[in-house]
Amino acid sequence: MTIPSTPDFKYLFEPRSVAFVGASSNIMKSGGMFMNSLLKDNYAGTIYPVNPKEQEIMGLKCYPSLSDIGGDIDLAVLVIPAPSILSAVEECALKKVKFAIVHSAGFGETGAEGKEMERKMVETARAGGVRLIGPNCMGIFSPRGRVNTILPHVRVPQIPGGVAFVGQSGWSAEVTVQFGTIRGLRFSGVVSIGNQSDIRVEDLIEYWGNDPDTKVIATYIEGLKDAKRFVEIARKVCLRKPIIVLKGGRSELGAKSTASHTGSLAGSYDVFQAMCKQTGIIEANSLDDLIDLAVAFSCPVLPAGNRLCILADAGGTAVVSLDAGVKAGLEVPVLSADVERRVSGYLANKVPLSSNRNNPVDLVWTPIFEAPVIYSNCLEIILPEVDVCMLVAYGFLVDPQFRNILAELRNRFKKPIVVAMGNPSDQLEGIGLAASEGTPAYMMPDNAVRCIGAMVKRAEFLQKIQSPG
Predict the structure, then answer these.
(1) 16 membership: H or E segment, kind and range
(2) More confident call, 367 vs 284
(3) pTM for this structure?
(4) Which domain holds residue 130?
């Protein structure tokens, strides 16, 4: 089968109409929960329930088949058993449906019979001009289109943003949407892609690479259908936008598991790491790390060099941050005598005495009502001398005035300011608010420093490819 040209993904992420084949009034069934999710999120387009046994579902007229629907259909969500999918895809083709999400499992991941069923499904879809997501997937989360089949029982704020994610696992997409939103990520689109029978990871990376609303691309990959094409696309896109990849199947046991999960061949992990280095892909070590990195690259500026200053409201966090900085290849330089003098002079009689007013700058303990002003004024003195500053603070990120000051300093000096919290369990809301506004914020200082290291490497990669010769 020839691979069709790149489709217009607007019909997937902003569909004007959605049909649910296998619709149900029971929200505990897939056909009910997915449709109910769109209704709860005030989807603005037309919803068509399809079920020959029902006349009305959730207050909407129900149709016996897709061919009985009078209007055009941009997206069909197929939530019926695998043996019935082929006939449903044939109907999609006759109806000229633009995209179909095949939620059902039981295809290529199950063995030879399932692979043949998947092949026939794709062949039928392509002959009729229908593009497929799946099978064996959870579908999409699109704030722009107000479509959420990934977390149908969870009301996630439908706030469009600059982060895109595609994962070969429903779990990876679910966690990225839910925990990523808490952490401050705002999404241009999220896709649970399953077996990649038709639309593949690289198709979406190519699309998002050209999408002006997408600034960061992240993905969970178990295996690639066309590694050569993936590398070609990734190499081009990495020149414009960061691509973060979490590779599943890195161990021998994990690689075996990918075959039964999504029918993927994991490939050599050593080859994958070499590919990342060659193309500029940023490798994540875990899904938590992927979210941390996406937060970092949501910052609108990158460090111009690797000089880090640590401004800490607790001595222990300074030690941990220094260790993490060394591991990340960062320089924590001694500040100039002039900057040290100005910082020491400013802090005199404001915070307890400390043996270290040079990098790291140990604030010991900052009076609670004066802390935001002290943090801000110290950053203003220090920022001209380093490439990036990390602040370890005990609060105040919920205060929009303080967040605005951090953003103003970042924009004025064109240098990232990264925040780690001293008491993270009390500051989840502030961490998310800061990150959503371009100030990366973390629960642990070593996570923050690792991400700063990744930002520095990304900046060095861009500088290297832009340098003549």
Answers:
(1) none
(2) 284
(3) 0.93
(4) 1-136
